[in-house]
Structure formats: structure tokens, C-alpha cells
Amino acid sequence: MVLDMLDSPRKIGMAAGTVAFMFLFPLYFAWMPLADEGLVNGGSSGQGEWIVSFSESESVLEESTVLEDGDTHMTEFTVGIEDLGDMEIGFIELIVQCNDNDDPGPGFSDSVDGVSDLMDVEGHASGDIQDQSADGTCMGGNGGFTMRWDVTTNYTGESFSITSSQKTISETWNDNGFGIGTWSATISAEINSAPIVGGIVDSDEDFDITWRMVTYEVVIEESMVEPTE
Questions:
Q1: Which CATH number characterizes residue 177's domain?
Q2: Residue span of the structural domain in which 143 resides
Q3: Mean of the per-residue pLDDT values of the chain
């Protein structure tokens, strides 16, 4: 039976091709994942000289409030997955500004303090995003305080060159899913009114509140500069 299958050059060639296919077919599928990983890592060595930059976008929420002495105000900023698209969160800032320009001078300046409540923000439970508190006076035309959270660790938005793999760069520069949720803070006012005959000079203060979120997309380009030894 076997001899009948090999009784002509054509049949012998077909049989040899079948055997070769049966041998090479499994090897092909075993090799493909390794080849794909090599391409993702930037070649067989996984290393290259790259210029890393960040394409940024900014989201801002602004509000104002007037507070008397001892008054508090809660402010919120909600970040949803749909707000980000393919972007990563670089950092989020809370800026509270005030300008006490109607008191007679030092000793009567208004002040403000704030404390955040981030229990509903992804990353808070793990300790990667932590609550903050801050305070400041309202004198000098630039009073108030700023809180900042680097959702992506050490994010500055500045470009840099690095010898690495594209895979490692992408894994390093991302927000790990942190920052989604409702960012909340409560600010409290201290109004120091100067007494005068017939009344007081100042009994309240205007506060401007700004939430600012900077998101980014990592841009990885091959460096044209030869790496130094």
C-alpha cells in the first residue's frame, strides 16, 4: 500500500511536502508570539534610543463663592472614564484664590484653609492618591493656596531622551487607572474685620476656586542622535 503511494516522482514529492508541512506548522505558531514580543520591545534586544514627549490636554472647572467668618464651602470635580478617552491623567490641581484689599493692613488679613476628601477617587483606598490640607492668607494680590496630585508619578510634561524599549516606556508613563471618581474638598474662611466707628470694614471675602486636570498621550519617537558610549 505504501509502495503504491510512492510509485511516481509526483507522489513522492507530495508525500515529502506533507511531512514537511506537518513538521513546520507547529513550529510556526510557537515562533509567532516570540516574534511579536520582539517587535513590541523594539527588536531582538528590546532596547533603543527614543525621544519621549507628551501631547497634553487641559480640563478646567471654575466657581466662586462669598464666605463670612467661619463659613465653609464644599467644592467637587468629577472625572469619568468617558472624559479621558485614550488619554492618561498627569495631575490634578485645586487652586483657591482670594485678595483681601479692603482691610487696613497686617493683623486684619483674611485667610482660608482647605482639606480634601478623596475617598471616592480610584487610587485613594490603595494609598496611591492621598488627601491633602493647605492654607493661606488673602493679602498681597495672590493669596490662597494650591493643592496638587500627581496621578502619574513624577509627571512634569517635559520631553526627554532615554535608552529603553517602547514597551517599558508605555508601562512607565500611565496613570494605572487612578484618578477616576469625584474629587472633593471643603474650604473654610477666617475673616479678620477691623472695627471702626459705626461698623466694620470687612465682613466677608470672595473666593475663586479652580479645579485643573492635565491629561496626556505619550509620544515615542526614534532618536536621530547616536547614543554616547
A1: 2.60.120
A2: 48-222
A3: 81
- pLDDT at position 7 is 59
> In this structure, are 23 and 57 located in the same domain?
no
Check if the beta carbon of residue 122 is closer than 8 Å to that of residue 183. Answer: no
How far apart, in whole angstroms, are the C-alpha atoms of residue 121 and residue 212?
16
Domain shared by 12 and 74, yes or no: no
Across 7-16, 68-77, 169-178, least confident range:
7-16
How far is it, in rounded angstroms, from Cα 215 to Cα 157? 10
What pLDDT score does 224 carry? 77
Nearest to 151 by CA among 224, 82, 89, 216: 89
Does residue 187 share a domain with residue 91? yes
- 33 found inside a domain: yes
Q: Is residue 152 within 8 Å of 89, Cβ to Cβ?
A: yes
Percent of the chain at pLDDT above 70? 69
Distance CA 179, CA 176 (A): 9
* pLDDT at 201 exceeding the cut of 50: yes
Query: Are residues 108 and 137 part of one domain?
Result: yes
Residue 60: inside a domain, yes or no?
A: yes
